[in-house]
UniProtKB/TrEMBL annotation:
Keywords: DNA-binding, Repressor, Transcription, Transcription regulation. It comes from Paenibacillus rhizolycopersici. PANTHER family: MERR-FAMILY TRANSCRIPTIONAL REGULATOR (PTHR30204:SF69), REDOX-CYCLING DRUG-SENSING TRANSCRIPTIONAL ACTIVATOR SOXR (PTHR30204). InterPro entries: DNA-bd_dom_put_sf (IPR009061), MerR-type_HTH_dom (IPR000551), MerR_fam (IPR047057). Residues 17-86 form the HTH merR-type domain. This is MerR family transcriptional regulator. Pfam families: MerR_1.
Length: 86
């Protein structure tokens, strides 16, 4: 089992894992996985170990935007449509 990176290391990194995103954004892992599967969170996949890597700054901003739209009462399909417009 791998050791968790420190928050300092995460904040200095260009790419983060979904677990690190959960820590950064106080969002459940399962919620982030759902958003990823719905195409709402772009990622890159390293072929050698199939780990999904997310660009930290852009993805944290995207999650914040999704949370804002959810708080306004938008559904997931509506949010997906809105994100594609932006």
């Amino acid at each position: 089992m791998s050791r968790q990176r420190t928050m300092e290391a995460i904040l200095a990194s260009e790419f983060v894992t979904i677990g690190e995103l959960a820590r950064l954004t106080a969002t459940r892992y399962s919620t982030l996985k759902f958003y990823t599967e719905e195409g709402m969170l772009p990622f890159e996949q390293a072929e050698e170990n199939l780990t999904r890597r997310y660009r930290r700054e852009e993805t944290v901003e995207r999650i914040s935007r999704i949370k804002q739209l959810r708080s306004e009462g938008m559904s997931v399909p509506e949010i997906k449509s809105k994100l594609m417009e932006e």
